Amino acid sequence: MDDLKAKYLGQIAEAADESALEAIRLAAVGKKGEVALKMRELGKMTPEERQVAGPALNALKDEINSALAAKKAGLEDAALDERLRTEWLDVTLPSRPTRQGSLHPISQVQEEITAIFAEMGFSVAEGPRIDTDWYNFDALNIPGHHPARAEMDTFYMHRAEGDNRPPHVLRTHTSPVQIRAMEKMGAPLRIICPGGVYRADYDQTHTPMFHQVEGLALDKDISMANLKWVLEEFVKSFFEVDDVELRFRASHFPFTEPSAEVDIRCSWQDGTLKIGEGDDWMEILGSGMVHPKVIAAGGIDPEVYQGFAFGMGIDRIAMLKYGIPDLRAFFDSDLRWLRHYGFQSLDMPALHGGLSR
Ligand code: 2U9
């Protein structure tokens, strides 16, 4: 029995891994192991012999089992130590970059425009996108029979039967905001009104919602010369050129008299637009001296005050500045497409190291 003990305790001490240990367990204390065989021999012994051998075999079994358990724990500890030594994390590595949102190109251009006019003393006025047809049309000298009021261009709000409130529309321009500003602030006045407007139109150069910025300057002695200077300063600053030539072309708008469309000198070469040089002219906005009826509609005396107004499409001049050919891109394209047109701000670096491409 001492032989058995020495043999198995020796083997257990030498076991290199858990599978070796399991093999020793089966051979020693398994159902068909050596200790079990010896137990079976107890039956052939005399009662006196049995009384000595029985407890001794049980003690041997216990001793082998506890040696197995101790060795198993030792092997597990060693395995864990080995894993801790080989598997490790470098917590100083930078984290994976995360994508960060940024301003939509239209908002970005709107901010550029606002900043340029702010330097010339214009503040921003805002108003509702749903307004009465009086603010959107009548106050702007657009009478009921004017084609701009036709159902096809204007989105009218649904009115329940018996609703006697004045008809409401989705504003077709930001001009109603200027009427409201005149009512609220009086003259003299220098404001721009940027924001979304709505017209029932959809093709390569029209979307049912687009953005305008309109400007209004009212004082006792404002002339078209002031208008020209303000627009020149704006164009130079927005298109980042030192010089620009503006051309006023006689036009007609119900809310201005006289009215002028404004072209800028430019060149188109190999699909590239250059502002301020060349033999082409490109229309960028409409403008004029505010019609006396419109000044009166805003609650200001047209005998005392006069002024200029202008309006331009933000989406359109954003397309010109950034070379985007289709207006619909602003509404249904993905970021890769806009990045192609140079909106680097969309690639703003994330906290650690920027976008991976
Ligand atoms: C008030 C008085 C006058 C705003 C003006 C235009 C000319 C004009 C178009 C440009 C491109 C609209 O986005 S567009 O399609 N606008 O040509 N807008 S003068 O005149 C006003 C506005 C408000 C009280």
From TrEMBL:
Any one GO molecular function term: phenylalanine-tRNA ligase activity
PROSITE patterns given in the database record: AA_TRNA_LIGASE_II
KW Ligase (keyword) present: yes
Residues spanning the membrane: none
UniProt KW keywords: Aminoacyl-tRNA synthetase, ATP-binding, Cytoplasm, Ligase, Magnesium, Metal-binding, Nucleotide-binding, Protein biosynthesis
Enzyme class: ligase
Co-factor: note: Binds 2 magnesium ions per tetramer.
Domain called Aminoacyl-transfer RNA synthetases class-II family profile: residue spans: 107-349
EC number from the UniProt entry: 6.1.1.20
Main location: cytoplasm
The reaction(s) this protein catalyses: tRNA(Phe) + L-phenylalanine + ATP = L-phenylalanyl-tRNA(Phe) + AMP + diphosphate + H(+)
CDD domains referenced in this protein's UniProt entry, alphabetically: PheRS_alpha_core
Cell compartment(s), UniProt: Cytoplasm
Necessary cofactors: Mg(2+)
Binding-site residues for Mg(2+), renumbered to this chain: 257
Protein family according to the UniProt entry: Belongs to the class-II aminoacyl-tRNA synthetase family. Phe-tRNA synthetase alpha subunit type 1 subfamily.
Subunit structure: Tetramer of two alpha and two beta subunits.
Cited HAMAP family: Phe_tRNA_synth_alpha1 (MF_00281)
Descriptive protein name: Phenylalanine--tRNA ligase alpha subunit
